[in-house]
Amino acid sequence: MSDTVDERIARVTFTADGLVAAIIQQWDTHEVLMLGWMDAEALRRTLTEGRVTFWSRSRQEYWRKGDTSGNIQLVRGARLDCDGDAVLVQVEQVGPACHTGTRTCFDADDLDAVRGPEAVA
Amino acid sequence: MSDTVDERIARVTFTADGLVAAIIQQWDTHEVLMLGWMDAEALRRTLTEGRVTFWSRSRQEYWRKGDTSGNIQLVRGARLDCDGDAVLVQVEQVGPACHTGTRTCFDADDLDAVRGPEAVA
């Protein structure tokens, strides 16, 4: 693609707080690893460095995943959704994604949903 | 699990607007189909009806996916993340997930990310 990173980031609809939700997915197994938040600068770093950077809402700082833990996320692709307010980042996750030590951040808490009916073809 | 749906919903940390991000994933292929938003009532309906219901931020109303389009989402499971502010709902998607007619809402717009290095074992 010939558009610049600025042009690509300009297609994102950020929240009033200047953030966009970023779904992080293991590129080959398609596991959903975690959901994080990015501002325009975190997204720019993610798209240009090959490593995932978030904006930490709790710490109010940039957070390049794995710089402390070693559990880095190596970018394999990134896509924007149809209305521009969610990003899907496909990564090679090194080690566990979750700070609790589980593979994904969704491993621990089953919400015990009622299963819907089978689809009718 | 023996906890009630109220107890499960009480584990969710909603935003100041009363919403939680919901990642919708095809249960078997693990494709990420879309990201939507739920308030407590939309989550309750999703967990108890076997069909996915969102809160539409633009229309300010409940939106049971597929009631108009026929492209329903049949629940297969739902999980909460480690800090309680994102839900992963696994579904059987009937038809395309995206209102544009594509399989997922992430099909159209490649953000052309720089690929990170290969992981070192």
Structure summarized in a few sentences:
Chain A has 121 residues and is an alpha+beta fold. Chain A is 13% helix and 33% strand.
Describe this structure in words.
Chains A, B: Zn(2+) binds at residues 82, 98, 105. Chains A, B: It is found in: Cytoplasm. Chain A has 121 residues and is α+β, with helices and mostly antiparallel strands. Helices cover 13% and strands 33% of the residues of chain A. The first copy, chain A, has 2 helices and 7 strands. In chain A, the strands form 2 sheets. Chain A has a 4-stranded mixed beta sheet, covered by helices on one side. A two-stranded antiparallel sheet of chain A has the order 3-4. The longest helix of chain A has 10 residues, at 40-49. Chain A is globular. The mean pLDDT of chain A is 96. At the A-B interface, strand 1, strand 2, helix 2, strand 5 and strand 6 of A face strand 1, strand 2, helix 2, strand 5 and strand 6 of B.
CA-based shape of chain A? globular
Strand content of chain A: 25-35%
Spans of chain A of at least 5 consecutive residues whose pLDDT stays below 50 are none
**Biggest sheet strand line-up of chain A:** 2-1-6-5
Specify the biggest β-sheet of chain A: 4 strands, mixed
Tell me the span between the first and last alpha carbons of chain A: 38 Å
State the helix count of chain A. Answer: 2
Secondary structure class of chain A reads alpha+beta
Mean pLDDT of chain A: 96
Based on CA atoms alone, the radius of gyration of chain A comes out at 16 Å
DSSP helix fraction of chain A: 10-25%
Main location (chains A, B): cytoplasm
Binding site for Zn(2+) (chains A, B): 82, 98, 105
Subunit structure (chains A, B): Homodimer.
Function (chains A, B): Catalyzes the hydrolysis of the adenine ring of phosphoribosyl-AMP.
